[in-house]
Amino acid sequence: MDYFLTEDQLMIRNLARQIAEERVVPVRQELDEREEFPSEIMKILAQSDLFALFIPEAYGGLGKGILEFSIAIEELSMACLGVSTSYAANGLGTYPLLLFGSEEQKKRYFPDIAAGKRLVAFGITEANAGSDASGIQTTAKLEGNEYVLNGTKQWITNGGEAEIYTIIAMTDKTKGARGASAFVVEKGTKGFHFGKKEKKMGIRASVTCELIFDNCSIPKENLIGREGMGFIVAMKTLDQARVGVGAQGVGVAQGAFEEAVKFARQRVQFGHPVISFQAVQHMLADMATEIEAARAIVYAVARYVDSGARDITKESAMAKVFATDMAMRVTTNALQVMGGSGYMREYPVEKMMRDAKILQIYEGTNQIQRNVIGQALIKEAAKEGKKQ
Amino acid sequence: MNIVVCIKQVPDTTEVRIDAETNTLMREGVPSIINPYDMHAIEAGLQIRERTGGKVIVLTMGPPQAEAALRNALSMGADDAVLLTDSAFAGSDTWATAYALSKAVRKIGADIILCGKQAIDGDTAQVGPEMGEFLDIPHISYVRKIEEVHSGGIRVQRLMDDGYDIVESSLPVLLTVVKELNQPRLPSLKGKIAAKKAEIKKWGHSDIGAEPANIGLKGSPTLVKQIFAPEAKKDRKLLYGTVEEQVDALVQELRGLGCV
To answer: Is B236's pLDDT higher than 60?
Structure first.
């Protein structure tokens, strides 16, 4: 379907597709099996200016929006969700600075981020704080001109590989969520270590790691926004990033669907290619329809966000939940269309199915997304009630 | 340092159709790409610029639509582009093409000239070395590695059947390169945006002072009669021993064949 993309948006799509096809597809299986971070591909993405997409032009970026970022993510996800996660998580880590960073912080970090010289990671999750972000136990205590961080973050995407970390920690535990603050911590800071690297079911090219803060002192200027804004910083960041997770769902589903179609045309049973059987056609028809519907909501929400809309929480949750539940179904069915071959590691679809699962979990589980949508509906209904 | 990279736009297929009347390539309806070997020449040019500074200028001769190939090269990071396009150039063979390109190179001024080892459509591998002769400068073909480059000269590895030669040269020099040299980079978004807006210089035969008698179909000493893959001749013999023994053996072989 034609989404009336601009010339620049098509250019971004074509370049991301070229990188995906020429540089990612040939190595994705090996990266998955070796659980290896795609350093070379990150360099190519940097050289191609894909890290510059949504950084403002004043800091060496291209000044594009969520739609362009989503297009790039979708294309990379068609080839490998592990690679696209490493790329997209860089965006996740950057949003706190983009949305709430001071001029000084932007000047300090954005040129390097845009050039892809320094990778970024976002750290909120802890052993006892996942869906419930108010359970964060990492603390940041102001001592003179420095904040001293203590605690452990877990399951941090790009952990160890990233050079810049945006971290949510408690500056005042007595205030609950309102006592959280956001900080920038640079790799190499004394007292900042990396813990164990996780072994995952899928997205194995993406690295997931513990961050350990042991009396880690950072300059006072590394506070993002004001003290107590940490929870807002995190929520607004996730509002933006969820659209990209939706784009990941569209991409991985499209990748699996194309493999299934290719296979169904070649595989002959009962004297005919299996694609000629109505049972298979109906599965493919449902898959194609669902992918298109998901792409439509992802692009529509991306455009809505880029229009400068203030409250995007409900819409971005909708894009995430719809596109990623779809991705799980479509990758599962793509494997089913391919039968035994689909289950074999010789074909890329079993990896796509393993990879797709994370999309229903990270950046807020799909149950949490539904809570978010539900709360927004209650708020809207209450507003309507007041009017009457 | 001025680095001129000569590229050719070629059809994106090895199955080239030939015009039966003129025996030249039919380009219509076939998507066009930069000759793959020339991509390595562009990459080499960009890498040399990263080492020594200077400018990379891409040059091609072809129909107006060859501009697309130049814009692609610009999006990879080339600084400037020149298109030789003029109906007077039509039908040029390798000699006439090399003549015209060398005239353009003279006008641009170059310390290093880079070409792919050959184009995948014609496969002659002649234009690069012929340009070197027209320019009266050293040329090194089949370069697989550039070991050293500075204002005083260059040292490269030249790929041979049984290994490689190390060749040193003064500048200016013309190199033709093989795919082992590097992996061509992908374009960048900033490069693509700049390439879209870039102005491409278009020169005709009078702009480069090319004699009309030396260009185009009329200026071409060769005519294509037929295109075919030559039969690979496998019967060859290596002679060993001292020079005297080898000469004796050679004379005997030639006598046996009735050559002497």
So the answer is: yes
Specify whether the CB–CB gap between A240 and A94 falls below 8 A: no
Rounded distance, CA A198 to CA A207, Å?
8
Kindly name the residue from A198, A210, A363, A384 that is annotated as catalytic.
Answer: A363
Task: State whether B190 and A23 contact (CB < 8 Å).
Answer: no
The average pLDDT across B192-219 equals 93
Q: How far lies A143's CA from each of A167, A181, A185, A220, in Å?
A: 18, 15, 16, 9
For residue B16, what pLDDT is reported?
63
Query: Longest Cα pair distance anywhere in chain A, in angstroms?
Result: 79
- Residues in A closer than 8 angstroms to B189, CB to CB, are 11-12, 15, 48-50, 52-53, 62
Residue A198 lies in a domain: yes
Are B36 and B116 in contact, with CB atoms under 8 Å apart? yes
Is residue B46 a contact partner of residue B185, using CB atoms and an 8 Å limit? Answer: yes
Minimum mean pLDDT range among A47-51, A143-147, A354-358, B252-256 = B252-256
Order the strands of the B139-150 sheet from edge to edge.
Answer: B163-169, B153-160, B139-150, B173-177, B112-116, B2-6, B55-61, B80-84, B201-203
Phi, psi of A150 (to 5 degrees): -140, 135
Asked, for residue B24, whether it belongs to a domain, the answer is: yes
Q: Decide: B37 and B8 in contact? Cβ < 8 Å.
A: no
Q: Is residue B138 part of a domain?
A: yes
Residue B13's pLDDT band (cuts 50, 70, 90): low
The pLDDT confidence band at residue A134, using thresholds 50, 70 and 90, is: confident
More confident residue, B24 or B163: B163
Domain holding A98, by residue range, is 7-119
With respect to residue B246, please indicate whether it lies within any of the assigned structural domains: no
Kindly report the CATH number assigned to the domain that includes residue A268.
1.20.140.10
pTM: 0.87
Are residues A15 and B192, on separate chains, in Cβ contact within 8 Å?
yes
Q: CATH number of the domain that A163 lies in?
A: 2.40.110.10
B18: domain CATH number is: 3.40.50.620
Averaged pLDDT score across all residues of chain A: 96
Residues spanned by the domain of B195: 2-231
CB atoms within 10 A of CB A365: 15
Please choose, from the candidates A264, A249, A280, A230, the residue with its C-alpha nearest in 3D space to the C-alpha of residue A100: A230
Please answer yes or no on whether B188 and A49 come within 8 Å at the CB atom. yes
Rounded to whole angstroms, the Cα distance separating A35 from A199 reads 8
Type of residue found at A228: G
The predicted structure's pLDDT at residue A387: 76
Residue after which a domain boundary falls, among A119, A142, A157: A119
CB nearest A47 (choices: B188, B192, B193): B188
- Residue type at B22 in one-letter notation: T
- Confidence band (pLDDT; 50, 70, 90) for A346? very high
C-alpha–C-alpha distance, residues A100 and A97, integer Å: 5
Q: Are A105 and A164 in contact (CB under 8 A)?
A: no
Tell me, yes or no, if A363 is annotated catalytic.
yes
